[in-house]
Amino acid sequence: MTSDVPWDRLVTFGPAGFPAYARVRFIPDPTHPGQQESEADLDSSPGEVEQWRALLQLLATETSDPSDCYFGLWEGWPLPESARRWPTFGVPRGAQIAARSFFLFHGALSDAAIWGEPTEAGIWGLPEFSEGGTPAFVWPSDHAWWVAADIDPHWAGIGATAPAIERLVADRRLDAVAADPNSEQPAYR
User: Fold this and answer.
1) Nearest to 23 by CA among 187, 160, 175
2) Sequence-ordered list of residues with C-beta below 8 angstroms from that of 85, at least 6 positions apart, any chain
């Protein structure tokens, strides 16, 4: 994949060109410099699984065909059972970004509300997923929006229309904030 968008911007917010952006925080932003993820107040977060479901439900209303979507799953995650019934395009040419390769799937948003259910808490006290991780990228064929959820940040970046981002930020099921993808984002160390 060739792009003029810087690598870190591409894997955290997707391609450039959307009128508005937001971040859905799976755990709260750090409250002080040098904070570790293990120090986050997880009780104040709606949780990753619940937020993925709410996010994809909301975005399904923002595309002309929620049954015609693409999912990029980082090749480092185990292949989720729910994705095994979908056509896969392997790691096709063009589905690679420096330091990341993805399996590309095609299907309906309703079939992929979340690709794994949380199991016991992992090493950092965060849930691990029994069926593999969540998609690194999700987008509809009409390119009405884009979700980028790289493996390192504690949040997913979303690009969409301004009204869609406003609805996303206002949705009480999500811990979402408006974002500028060209600015430095909060990060744990």
Assistant:
1) 175
2) none
